[in-house]
Amino acid sequence: MKGPASLNRLTIIGVGLIGGSLARALRKWGSVGEIVGSGRSSSHLQRALELGVVDRYELDPAEAVKGADLVVVAVPVAATYTVLQSIAPHINKKVVVTDVGSVKGSVVSDAESALGDRFGRFVPGHPIAGVEHSGVEAAFSTLFVDRKVILTPVEGTDGDALEVVEGLWETAQARVMIMGVTEHDRILAATSHLPHLLAYLLVEHLDSQEEGETLFDLAAGGFRDFTRIASSDPTMWRDVSLTNREALAEWMESYRKRLEQVIDDVRAGRGEQLQALFTKAKRARDRYFPPDEGLE
Amino acid sequence: MKGPASLNRLTIIGVGLIGGSLARALRKWGSVGEIVGSGRSSSHLQRALELGVVDRYELDPAEAVKGADLVVVAVPVAATYTVLQSIAPHINKKVVVTDVGSVKGSVVSDAESALGDRFGRFVPGHPIAGVEHSGVEAAFSTLFVDRKVILTPVEGTDGDALEVVEGLWETAQARVMIMGVTEHDRILAATSHLPHLLAYLLVEHLDSQEEGETLFDLAAGGFRDFTRIASSDPTMWRDVSLTNREALAEWMESYRKRLEQVIDDVRAGRGEQLQALFTKAKRARDRYFPPDEGLE
Question: What's the CATH class of domain B183-288?
Answer without folding.
Answer: mainly alpha
